[in-house]
Amino acid sequence: MKGQFRFLLAALPLAVAIGLGGLFYDRLGKNPSELPSVLIGKPAPEFDLPGLDPGQPGFATADLRAGSVTVVNVFASWCAPCRIEHPILTKLAGQPGFRLVGLAYKDKPEATKAFLAELGNPYALIGSDLAGRVAIDWGVYGVPETYVVSKQGEIMWKHVGELTDEVIARELQPLVEKLAQ
Amino acid sequence: MKSLFLAATLAFAALPALAAGLDQPLPDPAQEAKARAIAKEIRCLVCQNESIDESNADLAADLRRIVRERVAAGDDEAAVKRYLVERYGEWVLLRPPFEPSTWALWFGPAAILLVAGGAIWLRRRRPAPAEAAPAPLSAEEEARLAELMKDGDRS
Amino acid sequence: MIAELGHFALILAFTVACAQGTVPLFGAWRGHLPSIRLADTAAVLQFVLVAGAFAALMHAYVTSDFSVANVYANSHSQKPLLYKITGLWGNHEGSLLLWAFMLSLFGAMVALFGRNLPDSFRARALAVQGLVGVGFMAFMIFTSNPFLRMDPAPLEGQGLNPILQDPGLAFHPPFLYAGYVGISIAFSFAVAALIEGRVPPSWARWVRPWTLAAWAMLTIGITGGSYWAYYELGWGGFWFWDPVENASLMPWLAATALLHSAIVVEKRDTLKSWTILLAIVAFSLSLLGTFLVRSGVLTSVHAFASDPERGFFILVFLGSVTGGALTLYAIRAPALKAGGLFQTISREGALVLNNLLLATATATVLLGTLYPLILDVLTGTKVSVGPPFYNATFMPLMVPLIVALGIGPLLPWKRGDLFAVLDRLKFIALASVVAAALVLWLTMDAPLMAIVAFAFAFFLAGSVILEFVDRVRLRQLGLAGAFRRLFTLPRGAIGMSLAHFGMAVSVIGIAAATGFAQEHLGVMKAGDTLDFGGYHLTFKGVEQVPGPNYTAARGTVEVEGVGLLQPETRRFVAPPMETTESAIHSTPWGDLYVVVGDKAGEGYATRIYWKPFVIWIWAGGVIMAFGGFVSLSDRRLRVGAPIRRAAPAAAPAE
């Protein structure tokens, strides 16, 4: 009896090590600094952003509830991966079934305009978030980031970093199609 | 994926500060101290293990501004933290929350101390196993023992 | 050509390690003398080969041979020679080679200088050491080859990261690695003892010098890393509870506990099972650190580029080494017989308390470091465990530890009278309270924890001095007599006093720098003056200054009675990044720490700190390490069991 107890006690460190090993194995290959959004399933924050030109409409929460699925892309002219992402966004915008809108993050409107003039404008609407406060309400912590918002204005998906064809095909596209019904 | 994020972070970091180059402290020193204390417990999301109080990153400066605004608006520490947690999740707090999922974390050290201390205490209270008294030494063994003992405990 | 020779040497070393890891085990089992003796030869040969590989890679770095992929990725022809050399270990593959170098170096040293060890024990220990080496070299050869060539060879390297070109940063890895890897000897000795099924008290004496050496090196490495962070990162912080910092602290805590519990094993032939476990855990924590840095499982400022394939390999390796050792422990440890007795209140009792607190502290750091990962896997929630957690849990453990460090050495072995010891210390205790009250009065609103820590550290310093004064019989012999007596004392005792004193010095530094620091943040224009920290400062302005590979915005602050402090913000072009170089005026009483930031209106953002006694933190670390080395020079550690002239050396231990 006592011998058994001693054995169990001596085996305890091994058990802990095995448990930790399992955890580490599970974690391999995943990115530890990627933060999942806590807003998934919740309504998009209330906001109203101006457009790039004074008097030009930007975009606001109401636009997200206008009856179609929206893909919100947070970008900036000073962001290198945004340039890389741009052609993929342009291709995406051409497809039917949703709207692509842009949130220009901490970007001077002239710079944003120059960026879009150079690469093309895939966005149906653009909001200029010069101070970055609205982006914080969305939980943005870097650029680029992309969100999928349902017809009712709820955030359903977030992607950190530039979009790739693979991510679009595997996650974004199916989700948009599902939400569009 | 990670390299993309890193690139984004670098892109972020290279952004010249558009807002005022330095934080404007709150006019009320007590509130400012409170804001600074809270800032020390908020994680800089784009840094490696820094608080927003320490970090030079732009996002950190933005978050510090928000903390100051909320303190000036009358929020207490819990409310300010809640504001940020609503947007970024619990991860943004350097102090892990105290809730059922983290009880193991917060109680862990004390529990380990008590369990280990208790185990040691119990072991010591158990009487020592009776050992057969060793056979008495012969004369030459005694002499040899005396020789060796000269080199004994000295510290 | 040389790189290929290096690669070949590495492969040969791998083969030798395979032989070293298997043949002596068989030999010790069967009593086959040549197989036993192979261990020594293999260990030395392995070191020579790994050293050759190391030299080959060093040659590639020094000559800037960019056809070697590792050199291309991590070096640059314009780097100063010093940083070309230290760049060897600033990357994944190179640091693995450093690991293998240290591992084989320690193995060779055991083979050459461990003559006091019984042959079969030494053979088994070297075999275990060889098996660990097999893992590292396999890892390098199959996944992380430092000698890969590039064709065509590039003309210039990529590695000009300015942050890495810093003396503090460049030099602390070898010390850290010597520390981490040196603990492998304790591990090998522990596993060898488990294989033999016995832990004689002499085992503790055998393991002590190697653990001391590793511990002292690790102390230097951690101290150096912390000091680098202090002067480089721009706001005077020196410890961030970053996962990889924790990964260096945990083996240090475990090794400290091991050093102390080994004393009890030696004196009382008890606590054996626990000490063996400590030795296994300490090295496992070293390996865990290696895993965490390279696997991408945790974010850290120290992380090398991560790669799941490599992570998997290390995980399997870590699992085999730790799992194998712990399995052997589970099987063999229950059979280890407990030995001598001692009263709870005694020197042994104090050492047990020391171990209890250090083990809990290690477990606390491990819990905090891994909890985000555990919670993420189990529930998908992400939490952060930052300094607030550790301040609430780790710090309170240190307070009783410091007290025990002060009281313990004054307790006699086996049976002690606590009240008698407390009586001896009553003046010290009183002085500590007075000192704390004084500090409280001087600093007004310092946090309680800092005052308490200061008081206890003061108490510890006082107790160490008291114990030392008694030991040299200063009162009876006078100064000259005591000085003479000092040289007759066992160096282990002197080392102990130094190490404990160093601990007190560090804690005073930590308490003061965190609790009583002052800061001034604000915008300053040229000509603004400030009275701060007892100094009169005048801000002179900022100018643009070109550097070798950067442009700096250099601020000038004139400090009356001291001179000019010139902090800089440096903008590098390749790769584009910005670093802050703070300007520090260090005195034994504290540091004046100045940082200049961005332009704000007409002035510049400035941060000025006064950090009292902060230098004591690292001075204490140096004193501790010095104490370790002094202990290491104790003649008793080199005198082993008397050599039997009659019996052949193949007879098993003792």
What features would you highlight for this structure?
heterotrimer; B: mainly alpha; Helicase, Ruva Protein, domain 3; 54% helix; disordered N terminus; C: 654 residues; alpha+beta; six-stranded antiparallel β-sheet; 10 strands; globular
Structure description:
The complex is a heterotrimer of chains A (181), B (155) and C (654). With 181 residues, chain A is α/β, with parallel strands linked by helices. Chain A contains six helices and seven strands. The longest helix of chain A has 26 residues, at 2-27. Chain A is elongated and about 85 Å long. Chain B is built from six helices and no strands. The longest helix of chain B is centred in the last third of the chain and has 23 residues, at 103-125. By secondary structure, chain C is an alpha+beta fold. Chain C contains 20 helices and ten strands. Chain C has helices at 2-30, 33-62, 69-74, 81-86, 92-113, 119-143, 167-196, 201-232, 243-268, 272-295, 308-332, 347-379, 387-407, 418-424, 426-443, 448-471, 474-486, 491-515, 615-632, 635-638; strands at 518-524, 529-532, 535-546, 550-559, 563-565, 568-572, 577-581, 583-587, 590-600, 603-612. In chain C, the strands form two sheets. In chain C, strands 2, 3, 4, 5, 6 and 7 form a six-stranded antiparallel beta sheet that branches. In chain C, strands 1-10-9-8 form a four-stranded antiparallel beta sheet, covered by helices on one side. In chain C, strand 3 (535-546) and strand 4 form a beta hairpin. Chain C is globular and about 85 Å long. Mean pLDDT of chain C is 89; it is low at 640-654. The A-B interface holds A 31, 33-39, 76, 78-82, 106, 108, 130-133, 136-139, 141-144, 160-162 and B 1-2, 4-5, 7-9, 11-12, 14-15, 18-19, 45-46, 58-59, 62-63, 66, 85-89, 91.
